[in-house]
């Protein structure tokens, strides 16, 4: 799954990842990458992209989402934690698990 944020012809940011269906038929999302252009950071673009990704996952039946970011990436960590992500610190990266609910797009 991939999402791109635009303002006219200008790309503001993008994200992509996978909807993973498990053998037990449960499913989850893996967010591989979320990027926002430097001049558009801290303006809601990343939050909107993350909400779009999560909402699409909920519609596809996913009940959890995970992703990894660098331990020193304070801005990304603040965004993920503000949206309900819970960290599981492991070495130089920080993994986040998100419970997904139908109201995630609110």
UniProtKB/TrEMBL annotation:
Domain named N-acetyltransferase is located at 1-105
Keyword Lyase listed: no
CDD domains annotated for this entry? NAT_SF (cd04301)
Q: Which SUPFAM superfamilies match?
A: Acyl-CoA N-acyltransferases (Nat)
Q: Name one GO molecular function term.
A: acyltransferase activity, transferring groups other than amino-acyl groups
The cross-references to Gene3D superfamilies, in alphabetical order and at most eight, read: 3.40.630.30
Sorted UniProt keywords: Transferase
Show the InterPro entries listed in the entry.
Acyl_CoA_acyltransferase, GNAT_dom
Q: What is this protein called?
A: Acetyltransferase (GNAT) family protein
Organism, scientific name: Paractinoplanes brasiliensis
